[in-house]
Amino acid sequence: MNSTGTGAGGGVITVAIVDDQAMVRAGFAALLAAQSDIDVVGEAVNGAEGVELSRREHPDVVLMDVRMPVMDGLEAARRLLDPPPGVVHRPRVLMLTTFDVDDYVYEALRAGASGFLLKDAPPADLIAAVRVVAAGDALLAPSVTRRLIADFAARPAAGRRKDPALRLKGLTARETEVLALVARGQSNQEIASSLFVAEQTVKTHVSRILGKLGLRDRAQAVIFAYESGLVSPGER
């Protein structure tokens, strides 16, 4: 069960900030707290404290730095997104990084993170990112994210699972087509234009795809599409 609190329902979005740099935490907290629809419920200086904070406050979104002492953001994201029995709260995790491409981010997306954001992104992008992931979508629009995922998929992954290709067979031809377009970074509007259908129809297809494949959001759908071989890096 995924519990995303009030943010998913259109109310106030609760956010936790996990970063070992005090200036970063303070800046992000001030920016987000100034928004009428966002409430910062806590800050943590490393992944271990971030997990404890999340389990205690149940934020809708966790802004998670990638590199931190004690426990890095990747391990913390794994613990939040794959909690032990009895823990039902799973926040949306938005990874923060100072690099365009970072190995940790690849693994975070595979673990179920809803996307990533560069720390030097404009303030408006940070605010928009929190709202996007709180609404249940993934932060996949920027071209840098498409490149990141494509680069990740091109890497030979030891022990890569073989089941994604088999699971594809459960999709209809149209759902498979929509999944391929999602994996190439197209928005619902762009997919609707490509397939000459209504945007609401695309949303329905995406929802059914996620349900059939047991995926949380578009980020996991993109990873799945590459791992299954449905699309290949560099395809347009």
Outline of the structure:
By secondary structure, the chain is of the alpha/beta class. It is built from eleven helices and five strands.
Can you describe this structure?
This protein is of the alpha/beta class and 236 residues long. Helix content is 48%, strand content 12%. It has 11 helices and 5 strands. A 5-stranded parallel β-sheet has the order 2-1-3-4-5, sandwiched between helices. Helix 2 runs parallel beside helix 3 (73-81) and helix 8 crosses helix 10 (199-213). The longest helix is centred in the last third of the chain and has 15 residues, at 199-213. 38% of the residues are buried. Mean pLDDT is 81; it is low at 1-6.
Keywords:
single chain, 236 residues, alpha/beta, five-stranded parallel beta sheet, globular
Gap between N and C termini: 35 Å
Going by helix content, strand content and strand pairing, the class is: alpha/beta
* Order of strands across the main sheet: 2-1-3-4-5
Low-confidence stretches: 1-6
Helix content: 40-55%
Order of helices and strands: EHEHEHEHEHHHHHHH
**What is the number of strand segments?**
5
Range of strand content: 5-15%
Q: Treating each run of at least 4 consecutive H or I residues as one helix, how many helices?
A: 11
The profile of the biggest β sheet is: 5 strands, parallel
Radius of gyration: 17 Å
**How would you describe the shape?**
globular
Mean pLDDT metric: 81
